[in-house]
Amino acid sequence: MNAKLQYKPAYRISQTDLEIILALVRAQTLAIAGERLGVDASTVFRAVQRMEKGLGIRLFERSRSGYRPSELAQELAVHAEQMEAQLEAARSAVQLQPDQVSGIVRISTTDTVLHGLLAPALKLLRVSHPLLTYDIHAGNELASLTRRDTDIAVRATRRPPQHLIGKHVGPIRVALYAGKKSGIKDVDAGIAAGSWIAPDDALPEHPSVIWRKKHFPKAVPAFRVNSILTVAELTAQGLGIGLLPVFLAERRNDLVQLTETINECQTELWLLTHTESRHLRRVSAVFNHLAEQIALA
After folding, report:
1. CA-CA distances (angstroms) from residue 202 to 23, 112, 140, 253?
2. How far apart are the first and last CA of the chain?
3. 297 partner at 20 to 30 Å CA-CA among 22, 80, 112, 165?
4. The pTM is what?
5. How many CA atoms lie within 13 A of 27 on its CB side?
């Protein structure tokens, strides 16, 4: 007599499974994913193993840099975000004060935009939505939003990724500046001084770096720094001349503008988010406020 075949039902993805997948897609490390879920890294590891065994397919590729999601994991993360949005909408529906928004909003931007534009706008937002808290990452890359580790990005880019939605805030105009302490009052004196301050190694593709190398190929920066904000600080101290966004420099009284705005250095400021995240009340409240408050002259 032939032995009976044992029936093994197809693996059923649960809400908890989706939450774990989304956390790992966003964090890309077991430790950070576990921290966000309120469990330890080994719990996340075992859950992923269980899901992969049940599905018969690998959800994440392991490497030294972390866990890289497969196409299936990315698709499941989209469903998890939709579930997250629906759950938040349901919670909002039973709030005693539906106009009050709470939760953490993760924002990615650059230090220049953070200090020059974003911080003043967030100060106003704290008044209207005091229950919101913010996780702000100031860096030069757009990767954190692309891998869904950020809710909103405020970025300088000429071509925003097609899978993101957003608002074009306006052009970021750039000019050459010197510090008032330097005694330099015109562009010829500034260039003659020759002490350039620039983010060559940190931002080799930055429009200001490309422009300087094109028009002053023999000029070697006296100071190489890792951010545009640092260019502004050292320039203001009288250590040299630097190319700076007008919106940042015009708010200071320790800088002197040496040139008109330079068209070749101009880029565009965008406010970006995911289609799914846009419907979360906490994200929508912050996105709409920033869209109204952030402006470029």
Report:
1. 30, 14, 9, 27
2. 85
3. 165
4. 0.66
5. 17
